[in-house]
């Protein structure tokens, strides 16, 4: 899957171009989804509602996660699997670790070391298993049927039957291993033991069979001799009896690779299970899986700067960029498709791509492309406006049969309302960070049709700009309050008065109006950078 998204603090052009490009790519057979890196502006919300298009999902970051790795798909075993069967599964598949599950959920893990240690210690003579495991593990057959579940203490009938009886060594929980000593067999039946295991594949005289049935004492006959039976019957226990159940280091698909690496450095296990939020087993990962992770495939629109992109963009695989800004800081290890054009809107470029590829534009997508062009070019009034923008807007309005002037006025009115917004929300609704020769500048732009509502908050805005300026160690922090009607911007700033004065040929006063200043990209940023180069 390919993630398509614009910059942080997304504007209408960023969101609409991401949605439209995703629709274009999907029509070509790709699997993509548009995302947003921040909250929608009122203007963008208006546009999406107008054309009944769903809001893109929020993308927190594009860091490499466990789900981006190739899992080791080690077959699981059930908690009712025998230790012997688990060992055979490991041997056949040349693996040393097995997941133990119930209903798909991870209950524990078992390693070859766990099995070896259980056999070496062999401290318990207790058996908890089922009939299937016993018959398979001991190559046995049923003589007298009984319960499927078998639980009890293992006792080898090596003593004389009178000694056993005298010392009261048998009880209803005893699982006895017997040879051809019929006195011992009779004693086991009389004692009502849990089960009798006959060795050496012996047949049993009918009278004992009938008595066992009456007493409801199950009997099986196995191929092994007494020593072999005693040795292997413990291996018929459920694997859950020796599996590791607690303090298992496990990972979730959404865990980040950096966190996984730290955990692996500390624990140093060979394999680690991966489970989802419901503890369903998905696979195993080890250190070798971290060497070549499948990074997230992304397409960037309306930006090509690391500081403006998603967190973790350095870990992602950028496969394409579609933008109309200056070439920024992002670089790639291999050549990619980079569509960068000197136009007023990324939506203009996406529109050209639809036309070049001969892909039909659905009306709702046409509406989004039109809106993005109107927004970023201020209805073709911005100095960034190109002939391509004019042509695209003309063709789209004809397709939609809509009056661009009336629609733009309606869109701007909805989008420039600052009612109910905090100072922070006003400042960051369209904010971008730039860097030049190690110096950082932050520029926010607010478009509005109600200048008074902004200037009523002038002192609060200046205080907030000061906090942002110092907190981020910016060389220049600037807020452009763009008056759509007057086609210019009022400026509030922190930083060098000389640089501001030279950049905009205006008095370095807080709130001074700069006529014709409507584009951050083509006027604001270049002017600041040029002034910095002269007076820094």
List keywords for this structure.
22% strand; alpha/beta; 536 residues; 4 domains; CBS-domain; 6-stranded mixed β-sheet
Q: What is the strand content?
A: 15-25%
Q: What is the overall shape? A: elongated
CATH topology of the largest domain: inorganic pyrophosphatase (n-terminal core)
Low-confidence stretches: none
| Rounded mean pLDDT score | 92
Radius of gyration: 37 Å
Which percent range fits the helix content? Answer: 25-40%
* DSSP summary, beta strand count: 22
| CATH class category label of the largest domain | Alpha Beta
What's the number of domains? 4
Major beta sheet, strand line-up: 3-2-1-15-16-17
Distance separating the two termini: 46 Å
Under CATH, the homologous superfamily of the largest domain reads inorganic pyrophosphatase (n-terminal core)
By helix and strand content, what is the structural category?
Answer: alpha/beta
| Total DSSP helices | 19
Would you identify the CATH architecture of the largest domain?
Alpha-Beta Complex
In this structure, how is the largest beta sheet organized?
A: 6 strands, parallel
Structural summary, described in words:
It is a single chain. By secondary structure, the protein is of the alpha/beta class. The protein has four domains: 2-64 and 296-415, inorganic pyrophosphatase (n-terminal core), CATH 3.90.1640.10; 68-120 and 241-290, CBS-domain, CATH 3.10.580.10; 140-223, HprK N-terminal domain-like (Udp-n-acetylmuramoylalanyl-d-glutamate--2,6- Diaminopimelate Ligase, Chain: A, domain 1); 423-535, Diaminopimelate Epimerase, Chain A, domain 1 (Roll), CATH 3.10.310.20. Helix content is 38%, strand content 22%. The protein contains 19 helices and 22 strands. It has a six-stranded parallel β-sheet with strand order 3-2-1-15-16-17. Strands 7-9-10-11-12-8 form a six-stranded mixed β-sheet, sandwiched between helices. Strand 1 (2-5), helix 1 (12-27) and strand 2 form a beta-alpha-beta unit. It is elongated. The model has no long low-confidence stretch (mean pLDDT 92).
